[in-house]
Amino acid sequence: MPEEQAERVLGSIGRLRILRVMAENPRLEASFSLYRLKALTGIGDSNLKIHIATLMRYGLVEEVRLGHQRRYRLVRGEPLVEALIQVFRIFATRHPNRTPQTRFNESGAKK
């Protein structure tokens, strides 16, 4: 991914927040509904859809259909996704007293 594309996709706090929620999930293969992502990130509906579409366009997130429901998950095996998972894990180990919810609240998510 050229540098300008990396800056475009990773240069958004909202997109980083979505990626972090997905990466910090104990079961990385789990998928998330838009409703669940909204609850975990505090991002509004329209912005959440735009961010998910961008992450899908750059191959970091994929859509999974379960019946009529659309769910989203990280694209495992994608080098950038794997690197981001490691970055989030390193950050979490350096700040062990902060829960994922505390991190979201500190980053501006709605309580």
Strand order of the largest sheet: 1-2
Indicate the percent of residues in helices.
55-70%
By CATH, the topology is: Arc Repressor Mutant, subunit A
Tally of alpha and pi helices: 6
Q: How many structural domains in the coordinates?
A: 1
Protein described:
- The C terminus is likely disordered.
- Helices cover 57% and strands 11% of the residues.
- The N and C termini lie far apart (35 Å).
- The protein has one domain: Winged helix-like DNA-binding domain superfamily/Winged helix DNA-binding domain (Arc Repressor Mutant, subunit A).
- A hairpin with a 2-residue loop joins strand 1 and strand 2.
- It contains 6 helices and 2 strands; from the N terminus they run ααααββαα.
- With 111 residues, it is mainly alpha-helical.
- The chain has a two-stranded antiparallel sheet with strand order 1-2.
Short description:
A two-stranded antiparallel ribbon has the order 1-2. The chain is built from six helices and two strands; from the N terminus they run ααααββαα. The chain is mainly α.
Attribute tags:
mainly alpha, two-stranded antiparallel sheet, 6 helices, Arc Repressor Mutant, subunit A, about 110 residues, 2 strands, about 55% helix, disordered C terminus
Task: Give the topology, please.
Elements: H1 3-10, H2 13-23, H3 34-41, H4 45-57, E1 61-66, E2 69-74, H5 79-94, H6 100-106
Antiparallel strand pairs: 1-2
